[in-house]
Amino acid sequence: MSFLLFKTLHVSCAALSFTLFFLRGIWSFNDSPIMRQRWVEVVPHVVDTLLLANALALAFTIEQYPFVDTWLTAKFFGLLLYIMLGSVALTPGRSKAIRIAAWLAALAVFIYIVLVAATHNPLPFIH
Ligand code: HEM
User: Fold this and answer.
1) Phi then psi for 94, rounded to 5 degrees?
2) How far is Cα 104 from Cα 3, in angstroms, rounded to an integer?
3) Where are the domains of the chain?
């Protein structure tokens, strides 16, 4: 029962995280005033914290862990890369071309993480 709850929360937070990151990229690249609203800073942090908390709860429930099971190690490093690319994409200062490239790469990494999750395979393109 709790597995289903953790998983529903984890997947919902993943979908929300993707949507918010996608939108923040568009708003940031268009210099939208929405980016200066307080909730745009706070809500993604709350969502990402919940995403990670439920990830840990799921890992403990199914007794599979990063650095033990390769697909979860891949998800862990994927998440790290997503955070790093996301920070390059959304932090002003660098050229817009670099920020857009980082944004697209972060979106691609996110899709990779979802594919790893769905297949339990660190190389989901190779069977
Ligand atoms: C951006 C980061 C992440 C995204 C987008 C994501 C996405 C997903 C998705 C879509 C599923 C459902 C897969 C399915 O049932 O078909 C899932 C399940 C899961 N995720 Fe994540 N996840 C992320 C990070 C993590 C991390 C860092 C961990 C490591 C602790 C983790 C651990 C798990 C576990 C244990 C499951 C349950 C797999 C199962 O049903 O057997 N996730 N994740």
Assistant:
1) -85, 170
2) 32
3) 2-119
Q: Which candidate, 33, 79, 20, 37, places its Cα nearest to that of 54?
A: 79
Residue by residue, pLDDT tens for the chain (127 residues) are 689 999 999 999 999 999 999 999 999 999 999 999 999 999 999 999 999 999 999 999 999 999 999 999 999 999 999 999 999 999 999 999 999 999 999 999 999 999 999 999 999 988 6
pTM: 0.93
Atom 25, ligand 1: which residue's CA is nearest? Answer: 55
7 CA to middle of ligand 1, Å?
Answer: 8
Ligand 1 shell residues, CB under 6 Å: 7, 10-11, 14, 55-56, 58-59, 62, 64, 66, 72, 75-76, 79, 82, 110, 113-114, 117-118
